[in-house]
């Protein structure tokens, strides 16, 4: 199958049912009021909502049944991520799904016990970044000769909520994974970071002689790490597509009610045309996202899957950024205030743009993939 000719997109009955239920659940439990309720709270989500998510089995969507998962494959998480984005729900679900995929793809047999715990509802996250470079490998975070983890990771998403932290570190001089029980970390080890998007949370973690519960090393780690980054880009793209849809709804509602000089501002072409552009960008992003979800599976991601994931991330985050920017502008001076809901979307857009590489990062790599042959 050639990259340029890859147009696969399928949506089976199970995924359709999951999408319908996820939309209904997230609309009932999330939304702008719920998001604002948790902006200044220690957690960006309700523990009761997380318990419901666990009860529905969403933490095991991408895991096989023998590890306690649903056996649906990671592509089935896309409609859930989109629904979470549309409701601006900031739970640790995406971090948990991605941590599970990293362990599963690196060495699922060795990680079986941890994966069963994740499928049962124990949140997880991946501690990867030591700099702003999403292509960088670990250099200062190491497992020393005594088997203790040393070093620091930056901007670890959902670090405050996770029971399991999957740390990308040097193991025996080569990139590996060290699984840390968060309960073994001291309170001082986790330093919350202030993000522009407060519907998500992150922290820096200092590992000063922590004993990992599991070490995974070998040739499979690099391939698993590459897949993890691409799948992360895909799930953030799905979440961003949902947020763009919600942003458009908020913007159009405002255009249909706000009057200026005796006329609804939605009647002006200068505001109609950008609104249509938001819709077109969002629909394009959704097509890219569901195309990618149709391609990804349990096997290592090949060239077509990589192209699809990178295209989805570049398009979806650009769509959300444009939607958030126009929402602020259309609301006028009020749009620049904290009380205006447009702020939630432009902040989510800025945060999503940086996760797993921005649009420029992915387009640079797409150029090599598509044009070097």
UniProtKB/TrEMBL annotation:
- List the InterPro entries: AcylCo_DH-like_C, AcylCo_DH/oxidase_C, AcylCoA_DH/ox_N, AcylCoA_DH/ox_N_sf, AcylCoA_DH/oxidase_NM_dom_sf
Where does the Acyl-CoA dehydrogenase/oxidase C-terminal domain lie? 233-368
Q: Hey, which family's this protein in?
A: Belongs to the acyl-CoA dehydrogenase family.
The protein, known as:
Acyl-CoA dehydrogenase family protein
Q: Which Pfam families match?
A: Acyl-CoA_dh_1, Acyl-CoA_dh_N
What Gene Ontology terms describe what this protein does at the molecular function level? oxidoreductase activity
- List the cofactors: FAD
Show where the Acyl-CoA dehydrogenase/oxidase N-terminal domain sits. Answer: 13-122
Annotated keywords: FAD, Flavoprotein, Oxidoreductase
Please tell me whether the keyword Glycosyltransferase is annotated for this protein: no
Please report the organism this UniProt entry assigns to the protein: Congregibacter brevis
* Enzyme Commission number(s) from the entry: 1.-.-.-
Q: Could you tell me which SUPFAM superfamilies the record lists for this protein?
A: Acyl-CoA dehydrogenase C-terminal domain-like, Acyl-CoA dehydrogenase NM domain-like
């Amino acid at each position: 199958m050639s990259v340029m000719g890859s147009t696969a997109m399928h949506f089976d009955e199970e995924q359709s049912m999951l999408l319908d239920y996820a939309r209904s659940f997230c609309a009932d439990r999330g939304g702008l009021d719920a998001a604002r309720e948790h902006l200044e709270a220690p957690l960006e989500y309700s523990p009761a909502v997380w318990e419901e998510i666990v009860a529905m089995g969403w933490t095991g969507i991408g895991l096989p049944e023998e590890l306690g998962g649903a056996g649906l494959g990671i592509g089935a998480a896309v409609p859930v991520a989109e629904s979470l984005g549309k409701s601006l729900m900031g739970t640790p679900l995406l971090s948990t799904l991605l941590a599970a995929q990293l362990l599963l793809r690196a060495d699922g047999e060795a990680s079986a016990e941890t994966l069963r715990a994740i499928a049962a509802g124990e949140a997880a996250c991946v501690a990867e970044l030591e700099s702003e470079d999403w292509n960088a490998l670990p250099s200062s975070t190491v497992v020393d000769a005594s088997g203790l983890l040393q070093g620091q990771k930056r901007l670890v998403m959902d670090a405050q909520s996770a029971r399991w932290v999957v740390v990308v570190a040097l193991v025996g001089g080569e990139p590996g994974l060290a699984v840390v029980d968060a309960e073994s970390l001291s309170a001082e080890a986790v330093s919350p970071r202030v993000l522009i998007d407060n519907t998500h949370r992150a922290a820096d973690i200092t590992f000063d002689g922590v004993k990992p519960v599991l070490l995974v090393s070998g040739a499979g780690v690099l391939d698993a790490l590459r897949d993890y980054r691409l799948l992360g880009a895909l799930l953030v793209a799905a979440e961003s597509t949902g947020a763009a849809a919600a942003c458009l709804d908020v913007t159009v509602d405002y255009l249909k009610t706000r009057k200026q000089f005796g006329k609804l501002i939605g009647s002006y072409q200068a505001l109609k045309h950008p609104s249509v552009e938001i819709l077109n960008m969002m629909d394009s992003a959704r097509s890219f996202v569901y195309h990618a979800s149709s391609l990804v599976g349990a096997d290592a991601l090949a060239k077509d899957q990589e192209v699809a994931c990178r295209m989805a991330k570049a398009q979806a985050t650009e769509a959300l950024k444009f939607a958030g920017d126009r929402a602020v502008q259309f609301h006028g001076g009020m749009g620049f205030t904290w009380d205006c809901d447009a702020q939630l979307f432009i902040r989510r857009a800025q945060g999503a743009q940086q996760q797993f590489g921005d649009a420029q990062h992915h387009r640079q790599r797409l150029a090599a993939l598509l044009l070097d042959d």
